[in-house]
Amino acid sequence: MTLIISFAVAYDIFLNDFSVFSLKAEYYKPSYAYSSGYNWVAGMFGGEVGGEYKGFWGNLRFFSSGNMDLTNDQGEVIGKFSSNFVRFSAGKIFDFKQYRIVSGVGLGYIGLAPNETGLGINIYILASRYWELKAFKNEVYAIVDNLGYEVFPIGVLRDVLPFRLSLGDRIYNDRFYGFLEINGYSSSGFSFKLGGQLGINILNLGFAYDSRYRWLNGGYGLDFLSGLSLFGGLEYKSITFDYSYTFLGLFGSKNTLQIGYLFK
Q: Helix, strand or coil for residue 144?
């Protein structure tokens, strides 16, 4: 019972942003490819690969808890197991005049324990409109993410997947990017994200804050920074190297390294 409760909460982390790219909100550059990986507390790790080419996009996200003790009802260790999650998503980008629609379908697998696995199908939709503001673009967008259903449930009954509804605004040009995003999660209520990035020659520096992590503030040391990500990157020709450090309070921190390539 303890494991089921624990990973019912952990299940929701699969809606989190894995990559540095994603920390900057749902921002799609024309024709790009990227990969990222991160390590987390207690041997947890994950990552993402993805990209977009000629209006088609796709990504693969994964997460693993690492090896953990498998116990019986008496609390005795009887073996090892790991909890794993994989989601593949792909879709099409439609641009017309000052509007953009990004749509896609995803297939997700989750394995909590040896005999507790599930499979779900979800959809993703982003709709946006932008305006030219002298040297900047201002874009307002709405997102529906992970709206779907369990094809093969983990438990006895099928259920809807934990989904996210978002409204956001971003302003950007070739060297600057800033955004504010309001999120509503079916499993955990409302939160917000904000962030910005500034490019200086080949160097990019930025930050992002996700208020969902504020509950990890235990009042110790730098716990009050929970949810803050600081990132920097180098851009050489079409290749980018990015690194981010996320404060997670009672859960320690998360380090993310990402490599990207922009097709010209």
A: strand
Structure tokens at 133: 């503001």
Q: Mean pLDDT throughout 105-133?
A: 88
- pLDDT higher than threshold 50 for residue 79: yes
- What do you get for the CA distance between the two ends of the chain, in Å? 53
Closest CA to 13 of 260, 187, 223, 224: 187
Residue 98 zone, left/alpha/beta (φ > 0; ψ -120 to 50; rest): alpha
pLDDT tops 70 at residue 258: yes
Say if CB 96 and CB 90 are below 8 A apart. Answer: no
* CA-based nearest residue to 193, from 177, 207, 173: 207
201: region left, alpha or beta (phi > 0 left; psi from -120 to 50 alpha): left
* Residue 248 half-sphere exposure toward CB, CA atoms < 13 A: 14
- Cβ-contact 93, 131 below 8 angstroms: no
Residue 133 scores a pLDDT above 90: no
pLDDT for 9 equals 37
Q: Are 45 and 38 in contact (CB under 8 A)?
A: yes
3-class DSSP state of 219: coil
Backbone angles phi, psi at 216, to 5 degrees: -85, 0
CA distances from 193 to 19, 151, 174, 178, 256 (A): 15, 31, 22, 11, 18
pLDDT at 112 over 90: no
Q: What one-character DSSP code corresponds to residue 216?
A: G
